Amino acid sequence: MKGRFYGWYMKTQSDSQTLAVIPAEHRCGNKCNSSIQIITEENAWNVDFPIEEYIKRGNKICIGENQFGEKGIRLKIDEPQLKVNGKLKFGVLTPLKYDIMGPFAMVPFMECRHSVWSMKHTVNGSICINDKIYNFRNACGYWEGDEGRSFPKHYAWTQCFFKGGSLMLSVAEIPFVGFGFTGVICSVLWHGKQYRLATYLGAKPVCIQNGRIVIVQGNMKFEARLLEKSGYDLKAPVAGKMDRMIRENAACRVRYRFSVSGKTIFAFETDKASFEYEY
Known about the structure:
Elements: E1 4-13, E2 18-28, E3 31-40, E4 44-50, E5 54-57, E6 60-63, E7 66-69, E8 72-78, E9 83-90, E10 112-129, E11 132-148, E12 155-162, E13 165-176, E14 179-190, E15 193-198, E16 204-209, E17 212-217, E18 220-226, E19 232-238, E20 241-260, E21 263-278
Antiparallel strand pairs: 1-2, 1-11, 2-3, 3-4, 5-6, 6-7, 7-8, 8-9, 9-10, 10-11, 12-13, 12-21, 13-14, 14-15, 16-17, 17-18, 18-20, 19-20, 20-21
């Protein structure tokens, strides 16, 4: 039996605090388990759970006493290195108009499939992590997912909230039926309008170098530039096993620019962006 994984990435951010939570299951042969990873600006933790404590029903995941879904997050972890307790309530989700994978969602044998559940929603509540309180009042939330066998060997990913919207970008080297290509998926939510750049729509990466990514599709151009390369270790799947270590900045400095027909829609620099750069 080939390895498989399934996980969600659920991020909450206020003006002063950032919290991302990743519930997941992992299967490799007869070995199965589940896990919860927690990322903040200051640290990252991973807690493993028996697969028997993992339950997925529709759009809800339960791992032990921890719950994740459309209504929010409930965390209750009591480990020697990590004690977490609290609840976050989600407002109305903002899903994409159609699957971010487009026609690739129907292609079998993909190494990894991506999903976006909500580009931006409100979050209210508080979480206590090792005696530090994370308070969120009308904060911003983002929710995406991944499933498949492994994360791509080389990829870059970023997500950011900003005044008027939210964005996500993923660029990856995709092995496919004996050859490979650089795949692009990018969604921009701007004042209620959704823009999309994707390989299946003609998007092409014209630059992936030194933390700088430039994507062009027709009359649209998207640029992201990572300005700092710190971060914390996260576990990532390889053939279902969580054996790979990657680095993620939950809130770091990035410069973005998005233009249509030569007109700049937005351009800004922020220290609140999430970024993974594995090139």
